Amino acid sequence: MATDDGMAVPAADRKQRRTLSTMLRSQMRNIAPFLTLICLSGFFAAASPSFATLDNVGNILTQVSVTGIIAVGLTFVILCAEIDLSIAGIANVTGIAVAYFTQQESYVNIANIPMAGWAAILLALLLCALLGLVNAFGLTMIGIPSFIMTLAMMQIAAGISALLVRGQIAYKVPDLITTLGSSAIGGIPWIVIVAALMLLGGHLVLTYTRFGRYVYMVGGNREAAEYSGLNVNLILGSVMVISAVCAGIGGMLGVAHFGSAQQNEFDTYLLDSIAAVVVGGTSLFGGRGGIGNTIVGLFVLGVLNNGLDHVNIDSFLKILIRGLILLAALIINVYAQRLRARAAE
Amino acid sequence: MPLECSPTLELREITKAFGGVEALRGVDFALSAGEIHGLVGENGAGKSTLMKIIAGVHPEFSGTFMLDGRETRFRSARDARAAGIAMVHQELSVAPDLSVAENVFLGVQPTNQLGLVQWKRMAREAGEQLSRFGIDVDPTSRLGDLPIGMQQLIEIARVLSSGARIIILDEPTSALSPPEVERLFAALRRLRDEGTAIVFISHFIEDILRVSDTVTVFRNGRKVAESEAAATTKSALIEAMIGRGSEALEETYTDDIALPPPNDGPVVLKADGLTIARSVRDVSFEIRSGEVLGIYGFMGCGQLELARMLFGKLRPDRGTLAVAGDRKNFRSTAAARRSGIAFVPESRRSMLFHQEPVYKNISISILDRISSLFLKPSVERSIAAGQVEQLRIRPAAVELELGTLSGGNQQKVALAKWLSYPPRLLVLCEPTRGMDVGAKNDVINIIRDLRSKGLAIIVFSTEPETVLSLADRIIVLKRGAVVREFSNEAISKDRLLQAA
After folding, report:
1. What burial class does residue A5 get, using C-beta atoms within 10 Å of its C-beta: 0-12 exposed, 13-18 middle, 19+ buried?
2. Which one-letter DSSP state was computed for residue A104?
3. Is B375 within 8 Å of A213 when comparing Cβ atoms?
4. Pairs from B16-25 (Cβ < 8 Å, separation ≥ 24)
5. For chain B, N or C: smaller number of CB within 10 Å?
6. Is B124 exposed, middle or buried (0-12, 13-18, 19+ CB in 10 A)?
7. Of the candidates B387, B422, B138, B145, which has an alpha carbon nearest to the alpha carbon of residue B290?
8. For the whole prediction, is pTM greater than 0.90?
9. B11 contacts B168 by C-beta, under 8 angstroms
10. Nearest CA in chain A to B400
11. Is A18 in the B-facing interface, judged by CB distances under 8 Å?
């Protein structure tokens, strides 16, 4: 043991010299998506004069808001090394439910229950929380892998949606939801403010609360979390409910944002949300990443979707290009992880 | 009845090193047709390494390898199988999701002209093969649904009926019940009489003596003794295994040490008739405050399961636990932690967060005591710094990522996370495994210090030195049941091994 102290000095010295490159490498996960974002923005700004305008930045923010709200909860789930494939389905059913409990025009033949706006919102929130609880129960109590459990829930949510609207389109939602989803204050759309607040809230919970720490630890090494006496099932169950409620809020505001509630309205949001979280650098194996990464991922996605509309290419080719750029971002993500692993050695 | 002929297999001057550490040093070994050759030695003595060389698992080694009088080199386990050598490894290597019959015919399923598997024929023949070993099981049932001992028997039966002429069994009896062991031995004797060469490795020396013709003893990578089974005894073999006046630096516990008289502190934990499937049978004990209880047994004796029951990770089929007199039925590890039980599993991988800094590893189990909703990182850091100081964890920096620490220091971190708010009962599995002498002594001192502060500590180990160096009282587990308790008496490694 005496030799330990003698050895400590040169070892620390060596550390010092290695610090910068090691730190850069270990931060690659966070740096790489950010570089991707800067490169994409630079490219579109050069390619199209209409891209880098204040108006268009506002457009991008508005366009990523619904994805952003849904991705908050998904970040929690992916940090725990689980997945939630039912987010789009739950967003859809919650949006439809809040319309279902609102008085519609006479030609829309659904429940048409004259109910106070707050009660409709509360019922819709209860519905999405309940579906999240079912996911949580299947995952923790029965032991169904989340991939399969939420795949089933995706279908169940679509089924409930279908039963509620029966192929029709409902336009009315409670006033509060209409305001938050489709109007602005001082030039800033409410939906952007809600998304920003939810992302901020998610970040605070993950970084500064005990629960947030548990999420990272369960994702980092589930067995060790259990042997440290954490209630792993409670934490996994909680993130499934958080994910469903975030999806539900995104669904309600999305319905107001789009102006209508109907079947299959949110289908593209499943892949977009997963892509935002993962492209941002949160590890699918859990324990690494966070809301900051998700925000960068959202912007990469937003800039990509928006920017492609500003440049003059075949609109059918755009779909393919979008896929290829996402693939490139994911490759960078995986490569960054390897660099990190090497830096740790 | 060994046939008088030249050996089927002859190894000379075999040396094998793993990363600079020599696992085998110039070992000679010969095996003849119609012989059962028993191998004994402590963990890490080199038995399994030698057998893996024979089975082609380790193709890199130095020395001469003669099969049927010709020098041979296997490049892989497949080569060895083609030459008629089959091995049952210590760890089960079955496909739990396949049926019993599919496992028996793994890789050699009977097929018809079209290359399609003949399921009915396969099931029928598997049933016939197994019943020859006295195994009565539906060949179409899923293997993973059967008890571990039955899975082990089926794996052994598969190898025994594979037609191999050299069969190696590494610890085949650890999960078997006495009648199953009898059936296995009958099958081994029959194969021997038909001319098969068999190597039988076991910690159970009685078993070795009963079934073997020849016994070889390994110690520290060397062959130290070889004799006819009929001409030796259990105590002679144990003596050869552990060595008198061993050259090792560490305490060898070959002489008697005195266990102290029973302590009269309050009972912290009482286990009554704990039973789980086939791994733990009717285990009862109690432990008092200020006492270290050692639980010793060979690999597969039920230790892992018993330890996990105490921490709520496994739930007993029968039996009860009481903490400080209150009956407990832990539904989760969190519940066990709340009743004041702390647990350190045998593998570092499964108790630490390698990507996180040291202080988060230390604070994880006490976060709910130092913070309610919001974290208090400064408190966490100062508590962690105190533990790092007290346990002499090096380097002494709480921000370092845990993965950068050495193994021994990581193990200390695993202990540290329970000590800031000392539990009532500390359950430690293999607390000093793989540590160097210095770290080992540190851990021993930490544990003694905790005992003097009134903690109750249970140490589970498969290494006799570990329990002998720590325990005030020792329970010996064998095939899931308590076979002996040492208390207030003199004990030595010989006697401990004799009991197991």
Report:
1. exposed
2. P
3. yes
4. B16/B49, B16/B50, B16/B53, B16/B58, B16/B60, B16/B61, B16/B62, B22/B221, B23/B49, B23/B221, B24/B49, B24/B50, B24/B53, B24/B61, B24/B221, B24/B222, B25/B220, B25/B221, B25/B222
5. N
6. middle
7. B422
8. no
9. no
10. A344
11. no
Count the helices and strands in chain A (H runs, E runs).
Answer: 14, 2
Sites in chain A below the pLDDT cut of 70: 1-26, 337, 339-345
In the DSSP assignment, the letter for residue A170 is: B
Position B186: which residue type?
A
Side-chain half-sphere CA neighbours of A18 within 13 A: 13
**Structure tokens given for A169:** 């389109």
Residue A152 tokens, joined: 């089933």
Residue A220 is nearest to which of B351, B355, B367, comparing CB atoms? B355
**Gap between the Cα atoms of A101 and A111, Å rounded:** 7
Our CA-based measurement puts residue B400 at a distance from the nearest CA of chain A, in whole angstroms, of 11
Rg of chain A on CA atoms, in Å: 22
**B425-429 β-sheet, strand order:** B341-344, B425-429, B456-461, B291-296, B473-478, B481-487
Cβ(B266)–Cβ(B252) below 8 Å = no
Tokens of residue B83, six digits: 């030459």
Task: Collect all residues with Cβ–Cβ distance below 8 Å to A255 and sequence separation of at least 6.
Answer: A95, A96, A98, A99, A173, A177, A181, A261, A265
Q: Which of B471, B463, B475, B433 is nearest to B346 (CA)?
A: B433
- Label residue B359 exposed, middle or buried (CB < 10 Å: 0-12, 13-18, 19+): buried
For chain B, give the longest Cα–Cα distance: 78
What does each of the 500 residues of chain B score in pLDDT, given as a tens digit? 444 456 789 999 999 887 666 788 899 999 999 999 999 887 668 888 899 899 988 888 889 999 988 888 888 888 888 889 998 887 677 788 888 888 888 877 888 888 888 888 888 888 888 887 777 888 888 887 777 677 888 888 888 888 889 999 988 876 677 777 888 888 889 889 989 999 998 878 888 899 999 999 998 888 988 889 888 888 888 888 877 544 444 455 666 777 888 778 899 999 999 998 778 889 999 999 999 999 998 777 888 889 999 999 888 999 999 998 889 888 899 999 999 999 998 877 788 998 889 999 999 988 888 888 898 888 999 999 998 888 888 788 888 888 877 777 888 888 888 888 888 999 999 887 766 666 777 888 888 988 998 899 999 988 888 888 888 899 999 888 898 888 888 888 888 888 87
Amino acid at B77: A
For residue B185, the tally of other CB atoms under 10 A from its CB is 16
| ipTM of the complex model | 0.81
Q: What is the pLDDT of residues A245-275, one digit of tens each?
A: 999 999 999 999 998 888 988 999 999 999 9
Distance from CA of B336 to the nearest CA of A (A): 7
Measured in angstroms, the CA of A288 and the nearest CA of chain B are apart by: 9
Q: Taking the CA of residue B9 as centre, how many other CA atoms within 13 Å lie in the half-sphere pointing to its CB?
A: 25
**Residue B434 at interface with chain A, using a CB cutoff of 8 Å:** no
> What's CA A200's distance to the chain center, in Å?
13
* CA–CA distance, B92 with B101 (Å, rounded to integer): 17
- Dist. CA B427–CA B420, nearest whole Å: 16
* Residue B368 at interface with chain A, using a CB cutoff of 8 Å: yes
Q: Length of chain B, please?
A: 500
Euclidean distance between CA atoms A318 and A320, whole angstroms:
5
Query: Are the Cβ atoms of B356 and A209 closer than 8 angstroms?
Result: no
> Mean pLDDT, chain A, as a whole number?
87
